[in-house]
Specification:
Distance between the termini: 45 Å
Bound molecules: cobalamin, iron/sulfur cluster
Oligomer: single chain
CATH architecture of the largest domain: Alpha-Beta Horseshoe
Shape: globular
Strand content: 15-25%
CATH class of the largest domain: Alpha Beta
Helix content: 40-55%
Number of helices: 20
Strand order of the largest sheet: 3-1-6-7-8-9
Number of domains: 2
Length: about 475
């Protein structure tokens, strides 16, 4: 316990973020830490949250390999830890590519005071707990959703590698937004959806996990099964966000929002009354969309959907990705969205060893044929925790999402990287010819609100 009183003090930290110079710098409310803080606070534990991304959004360090790290610098993090004088420092690490930043924060905590107990949680430590706890600066690793586990660690009931119990969303308090600088997130206004038309956006979670098991995805491997919140609780949180923070738009971060159609329709019917816009930029399952659902989405404030198409080759979808999507589901959705005015983005994954160059080119042609406004072509990358990772783990030594880490029998890694870069650039910039009115509506209005040549380049190249 800290010297001044007998209560445990816990500091939760979202580390700085490393990414390509060319990528868009997002600034999202850290919902995971928000939930952990709410649970700790409810139990009377003294807790604070430091999000190095929002606090140091404009501080960038460039690296030799074309990457930047943005966020609070180590000295400032050290100062904040010293000032708060916590017993526990909990560090979030959602992405394996950010692991070095998370380990560094644990080291900084130990530098401040060796007796601080460090805890790391998130997708990366959940997928590779042994590798994470091998770092002498990491005392505890939480595998899975952290609400119950962090409480048990802070209360001294569990330690080391702690596997989370199943979390019921019905019992969870709302994220502790009052512990974070909400106006800074809103002011920076870089949510997941890059073309967001609103000035006051925040992230929200209505469901967790997913009942599917796509081979490239790690979500279902460490989270408990698919769960949804009570509709009334979701609507009450949205009302609270509108009243307290004057939120105009929800950035719904759910991995698979529309699994239970009856529940979604109830939620959307309630949202209609609240007058708020929303997008679910993480990618929506095409099979969950029907005409009634799309109309309800539009009426409840949806302005854009990101369709998780993944591949235009049925064999790749079924045998390699294992996603229950049929390609003929896509066109009717596109037609209805066009008619009712929902803008469409689409996600594709290229570079599977089982996919030919021609099939990759077909993804591009399919996207053009469907007339999506924008698209993201990603290179398949072996995310720790996914089945693809297990399959290929002996064949790569470094995971870099811009690079083709998995060897292809007929194409060099460089060929795949160039092809995917070309797809992204030419598909997104060609909107000016494909649909000039939409081009001006999206790009020009976004740039008028956030003027920057750099942003324009990033919008075309984005993944
Ligand atoms: C926000 C987000 C981002 C942000 C990053 C934010 C950040 N600071 O790291 C941005 C937009 C930048 C991003 C980018 C990418 N993302 Co992303 N992203 C998300 C997203 C949509 C929401 C996270 C969230 O708020 N979840 C809700 C909260 C409640 O859950 P949580 O954060 O996981 O927190 C819980 C637990 O993890 C744990 N926990 C978390 N932190 C801590 C800390 C402690 C101390 C403890 C005890 C527990 C704990 O407890 C929390 C409460 O239960 C998730 C999808 C999702 N629905 O989770 C994907 C997700 C994390 N992303 C994913 C991926 C793949 C990517 C990209 C690689 C996509 C791409 N191809 O470009 C890029 C990576 C770019 C890069 N440079 O590294 C994968 C990660 C898989 C993996 N094994 O790494 C996810 C899970 C999506 C998926 N379907 O698979 N992403
Ligand atoms: S990619 Fe989407 S649909 Fe597939 S398992 Fe992951 S969250 Fe579910």
């Amino acid at each position: 316990m800290s010297e001044n009183n007998n209560k445990a003090k816990c500091m939760l930290i979202m580390p700085a973020f490393t990414q390509s110079k060319k990528a868009m710098k997002r600034c999202l409310f850290p919902l995971g830490l928000g939930y952990l803080a709410a649970v700790l606070e409810k139990e009377g534990i003294d807790v604070c949250v430091l999000d190095c991304i929002v606090e140091g959004y404009n501080t960038e360090v460039s690296h030799d390999d074309g990457e930047i790290t943005f966020g609070l610098q180590d000295d400032e993090i050290k100062k904040r830890i010293r000032e708060y004088n916590p017993d526990f420092v909990g560090v979030s690490c959602l992405l394996s590519r950010q692991a070095h930043n998370a380990h560094r924060v644990c080291g900084i905590a130990k530098d401040v005071n060796k007796s601080i107990r460090t805890i790391m949680g998130g997708c990366h430590p959940s997928a590779l707990p042994e590798a994470v706890i091998a770092d002498p600066n990491v005392d505890n690793v939480v595998i899975g959703e952290g609400e119950g586990a962090i409480l048990a660690i802070v209360k001294g009931e569990r330690s080391g590698m702690v596997r989370s119990d199943d979390i019921s969303l019905e019992k969870l308090p709302w994220p502790a937004r009052h512990l974070l600088p909400m106006e800074k997130y809103i002011g920076i206004n870089m949510p997941t959806s890059v073309f967001s038309p609103s000035n006051r956006v925040t992230q929200i979670e209505f469901t967790r996990s997913c009942p599917f098991n796509c081979s490239f995805c790690a979500t279902t491997q460490f989270r408990a099964g698919y769960r949804k919140r009570e509709v009334n609780d979701c609507l009450a949180e949205v009302k609270f966000l509108k009243n307290k923070y004057r939120i105009e738009e929800l950035d719904i971060i759910d991995s698979n929002f529309i699994v239970d159609k009856v529940w979604v329709k109830q939620l959307l019917t309630g949202l209609k009354e609240l007058g708020i816009s929303w997008a679910n930029p993480g990618g929506i399952w095409v099979g969950g969309l029907d005409e009634e659902m799309l109309h309800l989405m539009k009426e409840s404030g949806c302005y854009q959907l990101s369709l998780a198409v993944e591949s235009s080759t049925p064999r790749i979808l079924k045998d390699i990705i294992n996603k229950p999507t049929k390609l003929d589901m896509v066109k009717p959705v596109v037609d209805i969205c066009r008619k009712i005015g929902i803008d469409l983005h689409a996600f594709f994954i290229c570079g599977f060893p089982e996919q030919t160059r021609e099939e990759m080119n077909n993804d591009y042609r399919f996207a053009k044929e469907m007339g999506f406004t924008s698209a993201s072509f990603n290179i398949i990358s072996p995310l720790p925790g996914s089945r693809i990772y297990e399959k290929y783990m002996s064949e790569f030594d470094d995971i870099d999402l811009r690079k083709a880490s998995i060897p292809h029998p007929d194409m060099s890694r460089g060929d795949i990287e160039k092809l995917v870069e070309k797809f992204n650039r030419s598909f997104n910039s060609s909107l000016i010819y494909r649909n000039p009115a939409m081009f001006f509506k999206k790009y020009v209005s976004t740039l008028l609100r956030k003027p920057s040549f750099n942003l324009l380049k990033k919008l075309f190249n984005r993944q």
